[in-house]
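The following record pairs a protein chain with its ligand, adenosine-5'-triphosphate.
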Amino acid sequence: MPETVLKTVDLTKVYHTGAIEVLALSGVSFEAAMGDFVVILGPSGSGKSTFLNLVGGLDIATSGSAFYQDHDLTRAGEAELTRYRRDHVGFVFQFYNLIPSLTARENVRLVTEIVDHPMPAEEALALVGLEGRLDHFPAELSGGEQQRVAIARAIAKRPGLLLCDEPTGALDCATGVLVLEALQKVNRELSATTLVITHNVAIADMAGRVVMFANGKVASSRRNETQKPASQIRW
Ligand SMILES: Nc1ncnc2c1ncn2[C@@H]1O[C@H](COP(=O)(O)OP(=O)(O)OP(=O)(O)O)[C@@H](O)[C@H]1O
């Protein structure tokens, strides 16, 4: 059995906005092994991003537990969470958040300069098929290429955990598939445990496991017998 690296038990998050309480996550128990590729589906407001933010150390749970290896994320202080994010987690969001005045290579170097044992920026960009775009600025790249720079930036630290929130949300099918191919390659070559939130059910076919959220809970979880190559995904 592959080693479990991420485990949550009864993970719960309540947001307080003025007098209003929102139960965003309600007792989520989840496990992922090293190298798993998990797609998370579910209606808007079902708690997907909240879950990703908690396991990524961007937010703190109200109750329950979340462990990444021996990191106890529900008891960690701010400094420990910052180290956890820096050393172990790569984030990819819908909007690429690249620095417009820096080239692709320089955007990736922002990360490689602050972590131990990074891969060279050029290697990370080659892994996502952008070896020919090293010195291009974001404005000189297509949306899909910008997202692949964001993936290169996320993986250059060799993260154990790669968390993607709607990574193809802003892209058409042809461009989105190139981004998915990059994620699948990174997942396989780095054995990074990969969680992808999407509204696009077609993407579920490339997952090893598909988890459906509803009302802040895991409504269902299934394994795919085979994982479709990203190049064959269409929507
Ligand atoms: N910072 C916050 N403060 C208050 N409420 C929040 C906050 N973040 C999320 N919520 C609420 O928590 C619930 C879950 O939100 P979440 O963003 O996790 O859902 P989601 O499944 O990712 O939705 P979407 O698919 O639309 O991104 C929603 O009702 C949302 O309004």
